[in-house]
Write a structure and sequence with these properties.
Layout: E1 2-6, E2 9-14, E3 17-20, H1 21-25, H2 31-36, H3 38-45, E4 53-54, E5 60-61, E6 70-74, H4 78-83, E7 93-96, E8 102-103, E9 106-109, E10 116-117, E11 120-126, E12 142-149, E13 152-153, H5 154-157, E14 175-182, E15 190-195, E16 198-204, H6 212-220, E17 230-232, E18 254-259, E19 263-269
Parallel strand pairs: 6-17, 8-14, 9-19
Antiparallel strand pairs: 1-2, 1-5, 1-14, 2-3, 3-4, 6-7, 10-13, 11-12, 11-17, 12-14, 15-16, 15-18, 18-19
Amino acid sequence: MRLANLDGRAALIFGDRALDVFEAGGFGPDPMDVLADWPAFSAWARSVTPAGSPYDPALVGPPVPRPRQVFAVALNYPPHAAEAGYEPPADPLVFTKFPTCIAGPDETVELPGDRVDWEAELVAVIGRGGHRIRSEQALSHVAGYTVGQDLSERRVQALGKPPQFSLAKSFPGFGPTGPHLVSELAADAEISCLLGDEVVQKASIADMIFGVPELVARLSAVCPLLPGDLIFTGTPAGVGNRRTPPRYLTADDVLTTRIDGLGELRTRFR
C-alpha cells in the first residue's frame, strides 16, 4: 500500500494513478485524519481494487504533514559512529526534530548558514499509538515507512558545551520526507544519498544497531506514541562534516535520497 499527500488530500497510489481516499472510502480527506483512523483505514485500503486517475507528482507533499512528535536517533549505524569518533552506543541516542521542519519530497530549502550537512534516513510512521509497546508487537503499531533527510546546520549544532542537536536540525525544510508512506519494506533495503551525481552515502537498513521494533519499544517506554508520529532512524556513514576536508551544502547542490521500495526525494537549496 502506498499512501500519498496529494495537494493536501490523502490518496492511494497505484503506479501512475491516484485514488482520492475520501471520495472512494470516506476516510480523510486530510492525511492526518487518515492516520488518526489507521486500523480501519488500512483494513479498507488493502481491499481496494487498483483504480484512480493520473496525477501531477509536483502536487505530492510530505506523507505526514503535521506530526505531533518527531523523534530522531543518532549514531545508529556502526560506520557512522566510527566516523564520528564514537563506539556504537549501547542504548539509542534520541533527540527531536521540531515538527515545523517537515517538508515534502521535492523542495527548495533556504540555507541558514554555511555548514548545512546531509543525513539520509529511513523514517518510520506510527499508525496505532500506544505506551509501553513490547518490541514483538511494535510493527503492528507502524503504519509504514518513508524516505527522509535529517538536514543539520553543524555550526548551530556545535554551539554550547555540551552541543545540542534539535535546533540545528529544525530549520524550515530540514525534514524532507516522502514521496509516499509505504506499508511494507524489505529488511535489507538499500539506502543511498547522492550529491549531484556522486554517491555520498550507501548502506543497508539491516546494518542499523537498533531496528524499528526496538526503537518503537524504547521510545514508547517513556513517551506515549501517537498516530502520525515520525521516527528518523539514523544515518549511515558518509556525512559531509566527517570528510577531509569537510564538505557542506551550497546553493548549487541537488541532494537525492533513495530507499529501495520507497522511492526517492530530491532537495535543492538557495
